[in-house]
Write a structure and sequence with these properties.
about 400 residues, alpha/beta, Aspartate Aminotransferase, domain 1, Aspartate Aminotransferase, domain 2, 2 domains, 14 helices, 14 strands, binds pyridoxal-5'-phosphate, transaminase activity, aminotransferase, PyrdxlP-dep_Trfase
Length: about 400
């Protein structure tokens, strides 16, 4: 049989999906499972989004569309960007894709030749590693442990950019930690970026509308407008609007980068489907009450999760201020046992928690931080308190 390409040997199935699949299997066997594993928002968009999709279906042209994205969609995205303080961009600065993941993949293909360096923080969203490996980039990981609230410091960034990586990939608010950089923190990092002109900056900010406690969302380009020549902003409808399966992502940045992503599109997806485009325009331009209400709900759920985390002895859990994740450092429990099983690491712990209590969380090693585990708290509200109680019981039972 002929061989597969080498890059396929570097591509791995998602670690998060492996946990989710095990939880699904146990559920199918009749077990009572509460899932804190997949990072899905678990709500549906407003009715105006479905109405727009139905209307588009009624007048479907059936034709190919724009490789960059329909004008109406780009305009709605530009308006959304203005709403979060990113002004002065035009359609020529933008492109669209099948979700932010596809945009990030296109950017990796467009910006990185084999062996070029990409730097990003640990903990990282799993696909950063997977995509960087597929394109055979040299990966420079910047450890951001819980002691520094999982956040990158200006000194770390300065040292990383001094090595002139082709790309620095940033994520704010963060998956898996839920941490949000303050205005001053973004400003300090932007000052460092300004000193190092040889690196593209990708800022994956898809949770920009899910920020709590009045911290606000801040961006390198607002802090230092001259950085717009190198900063590529990535966004998505998936989390904000409860539309992960609709697969709509965006980028805005220098024209040359938007053109490169558009050229990539022309060679694989061609365009987003007309009906998806209409629904997306409605989501971005229509009433914003669903995302606003969900943001308030997630903040309250964050408080509920944190109250339990703080009640468990020896967990170290920086308080997240965005997205819908909590990422406790559980390593103080490694070496102890539960139900006679020794818990050596995050994978043992997540397996024991799932087997004994029916609660699915994702081991931190999926995000490069084996001391922690990720709790995604978007489950139906009635499941949250019992799920958290089971976690508390589990840790209390460890010996
Ligand atoms: C940080 C981050 N970036 C990108 C994505 C991908 O989003 P999309 O559904 O738009 O592909 C996710 C999804 O979990 C994410 O958490």
């Amino acid at each position: 049989m002929p061989q597969l390409a080498k890059r396929i040997g570097r591509a791995k199935p998602s670690a998060i999906m492996q946990v989710a699949d095990k939880a699904k299997k146990l559920k199918a066997e009749g077990r009572d499972i509460i899932s804190f594993s997949i990072g899905v928002p678990n709500f549906l968009p407003g009715s105006h989004v479905y109405e727009a999709a139905r209307e588009a279906l009624a007048k479907d042209s059936g034709q190919y569309g724009s490789n960059r994205g329909a004008d109406a969609l780009l305009d709605a995205f530009l308006k959304h960007m203005e709403g979060i303080g990113l002004t002065g961009y035009t359609r020529a600065n933008c492109s669209t894709g099948i979700g932010a993941k596809h945009i990030l993949y296109n950017l990796a293909e467009a910006l990185l030749d084999e062996g070029d360096a990409i730097a990003f923080a640990i903990p990282y969203w799993t696909s950063y590693m997977d995509i960087a490996e597929i394109v055979n980039a040299k990966i420079d990981l910047l450890p951001c442990p819980p002691e520094q609230d999982y956040k990158l410091t200006p000194a770390q960034l300065d040292a990383a950019l001094a090595k002139k990586p082709r790309v620095f990939l940033f994520n704010n608010p963060s998956n898996p930690t839920g941490m949000v950089y303050t205005k001053d923190e973004i400003s300090a990092l932007a000052d460092v970026i300004a000193k190092h002109p040889d690196t593209w900056i990708i800022t994956d900010d898809i949770y920009n509308r899910m920020v709590f406690d009045g911290v606000g969302y801040h961006n390198f380009v607002q802090a230092r407008p001259e950085l717009r020549d190198r900063v590529i902003f990535v966004d998505s409808l998936s989390k904000t609007y409860g539309m992960p399966g609709w697969r709509v992502g965006f980028m805005a940045g220098p024209e040359v980068v938007a053109n490169a992503v558009t050229t990539m599109n022309s060679n694989h997806i061609t365009n987003l489907p007309e009906i998806v485009v209409a629904a997306s325009v409605a989501a971005l331009s229509g009433p914003q009450d669903v995302p606003e209400e969900k943001c308030r709900e997630f903040q309250a759920k964050r408080d509920q999760v944190m109250a339990v985390m703080e009640s468990i002895p020896n967990l170290v859990c920086p308080r997240p201020q965005g997205a819908f994740y909590v990422f406790p450092d559980v390593s103080a429990y490694y070496g102890k046992s539960h139900d006679g099983k020794v818990i050596g690491n995050d994978i043992d712990l997540c397996n024991a928690l799932l087997d004994s209590k029916g609660v699915a969380c994702v081991p931190g090693s999926a995000f490069g931080e084996p001391r922690s585990l990720r709790i995604s708290y978007t489950c139906p509200t009635p499941q949250l308190a019992p799920g958290l109680e089971r976690i508390r019981e589990f840790f209390n039972e460890m010996q």
